[in-house]
């Protein structure tokens, strides 16, 4: 596979120097991995996973420090500087990520957090980003079915929930009722398709949909009771935060699980405690 600028690559060591090692990057030639990033006891012929980008002198360089996002991905990042060229964002590497003024949906101010799409400028080979993300999403028919597991990036908070980028391809909505825990802009999470609307919009949930999400934690509840000596005060009256901390599900799902176990006579349940039978 050809070496990609702005992405993680597995490259072979071909030369050792006092200041680092050179890696074979195919058609891009040999790329320096500076000494401070070279793993201990590295040998010629060994393969290393590195991120390839342009340094402050616009020369190709490799690093074993990985950014918060790669070319072709969305990320919510914080602006750390603005000058006559554009806004610069912290993406986890020494060289900040540029969003030129021409790629800003609204003028970016220092200290703001924005959802960005990172791409490679085909003319300069520079890694840049844009805040004009809407035209980059929903460009095809979504292939999902209800219950599908997807990767999401949490975007802006709205009056009904959170906008989310699904698999770097589609917009989705995570309603507050389906979030059930604190979320942060830019956070990467696993979600599930809750509903595919006729207008093409996609509803998400942070937990599996339908009774499957309940069935999946029944054994977890019983194992937890065993670990607690057969009894627990984590009843259906507990706070959503306390329930999520232990079982990573919403309070509603937990209550349904307790109800199923009670119906099957596997637990007894009072306001104060749960007891395994």
UniProtKB/TrEMBL annotation:
Pfam families according to UniProt: S1_2, WHD_CvfB
Official protein name in the record: S1 motif domain-containing protein
Family (UniProt): Belongs to the CvfB family.
S1 motif domain: residues covered: 4-65, 145-207
PANTHER family membership: CONSERVED VIRULENCE FACTOR B (PTHR37296:SF1)
Gene3D superfamilies with a match to the protein in the record: Nucleic acid-binding proteins, Winged helix-like DNA-binding domain superfamily/Winged helix DNA-binding domain
SUPFAM superfamilies assigned: Nucleic acid-binding proteins
One example GO MF annotation: nucleic acid binding
